């Protein structure tokens, strides 16, 4: 019979693609992990790993067994979660990561409710872009991640994640009140071909969505200001230095000299909760329920 511990070692190597990273994730030495894999090969009667350049890769037999291992570990995790639910105890650490606007508008009221209902829960929060935080979710260093997915550029997600859409919202274009088109209720991005843009850094969902949206309307974007926070982008917009694409949740607080217009054609952004299906637990489920009950904070902004 195969050892669960050794199957977990193989599954972790399959996920991370290297002995060193898998060992770090499992908090053991690379030599200790190699010994587990060698014993598993003897149990399986097949070679499970082979050299690949300076690294290793799974053989066909390794991939077959890793697939069974992943399903078995997922079933064991579900069993553990079900047993934990029998006691109805939501306690211990809950490590949350998320994009700034979601953290600011969705989490505070939800965490307040969780503190009332589950005082033994210990949540921690880290903000950042999904491209930065996703590796921490996949390695188990974050339990729950709030990500954004823009309609014209849906977020690519690795296998093994569970998703729940929490908010779906419109995206508007922000202009300075000094801009000639600022009084318009709606705008086509093709009308803004001569203005610089402010957005999040390259590689992030907002940046790539902006670039694709502009190119789809025949405009080659000039993203002059790469700023992580929407509120900082809006400070540039207010001075008529740039335009910006801003989702509803990020419109508050907006500087008084900023105006918003709907896009033609429209554009939407979803905020989604993502977590590893294999590590789902009562704290994660309790947090998602609290977010859904609380809903986003109501934005306060000018037209």
Question: What would you say this structure looks like, in words?
Answer:
Belongs to the LysR transcriptional regulatory family. Residues 2-59 form the HTH lysR-type domain. Pfam families: HTH_1 (PF00126), LysR_substrate (PF03466). One of its GO terms (cellular component) is protein-DNA complex. This protein is of the alpha/beta class. It folds into two domains: 4-86, Winged helix-like DNA-binding domain superfamily/Winged helix DNA-binding domain (Arc Repressor Mutant, subunit A, Orthogonal Bundle), CATH 1.10.10.10; 88-303, D-Maltodextrin-Binding Protein, domain 2. Helices cover 41% and strands 24% of the residues. It is built from nine helices and twelve strands. It has helices at residues 4-16, 19-26, 30-44, 60-87, 100-117, 130-138, 205-216, 230-238, 282-294; strands at 49-52, 55-58, 92-98, 121-127, 144-150, 161-176, 186-187, 197-199, 223-226, 244-247, 258-263, 268-276. The strands form three sheets. Strands 3, 4, 5, 6, 7, 10, 11 and 12 form an eight-stranded mixed β-sheet that branches. A two-stranded antiparallel ribbon has the order 1-2. A hairpin with a 2-residue loop joins strand 1 and strand 2. Helix 5 (100-117) crosses helix 9 (282-294).
């Amino acid at each position: 019979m195969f050892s669960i511990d050794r199957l977990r070692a193989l599954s972790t190597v399959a996920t991370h693609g290297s002995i060193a990273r898998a060992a770090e994730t499992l908090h053991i030495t690379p030599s200790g992990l190699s010994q587990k894999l060698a014993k598993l090969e003897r149990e399986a009667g097949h070679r499970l790993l082979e050299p690949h350049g300076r690294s290793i890769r799974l053989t066909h037999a390794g991939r077959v067994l890793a697939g069974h291992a992943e399903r078995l570990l997922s079933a064991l995790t579900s069993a553990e979660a079900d047993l934990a639910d029998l006691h109805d105890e939501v306690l211990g650490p809950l490590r949350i990561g998320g994009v700034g606007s979601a953290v600011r508008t969705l989490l505070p009221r939800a965490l307040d409710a969780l503190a009332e209902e589950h005082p033994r829960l210990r949540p921690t929060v880290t903000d950042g872009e999904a491209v930065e935080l996703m590796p921490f979710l996949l390695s188990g260093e974050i339990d729950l991640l709030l990500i954004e997915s823009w309609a014209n550029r849906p977020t690519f997600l690795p296998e093994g994640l569970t998703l729940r859409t929490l908010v779906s919202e419109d995206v508007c274009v922000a202009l300075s009140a000094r801009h000639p088109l600022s009084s318009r209720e709606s705008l086509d991005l093709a009308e803004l071909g001569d203005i610089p843009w402010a957005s999040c850094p390259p590689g992030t969902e907002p940046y790539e969505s902006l670039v694709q949206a502009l190119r789809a309307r025949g405009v080659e974007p000039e993203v002059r200001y790469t700023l992580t926070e929407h509120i900082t982008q809006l400070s540039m917009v207010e001075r008529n230095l740039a335009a910006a694409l801003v989702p509803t949740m990020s419109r508050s607080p907006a500087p008084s000299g900023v105006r918003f217009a709907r896009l033609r054609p429209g554009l939407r952004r979803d905020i989604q909760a993502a977590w590893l299906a294999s590590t789902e637990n009562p704290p994660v489920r309790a947090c998602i329920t609290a977010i859904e009950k609380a809903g986003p904070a109501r934005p306060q902004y000018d037209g």
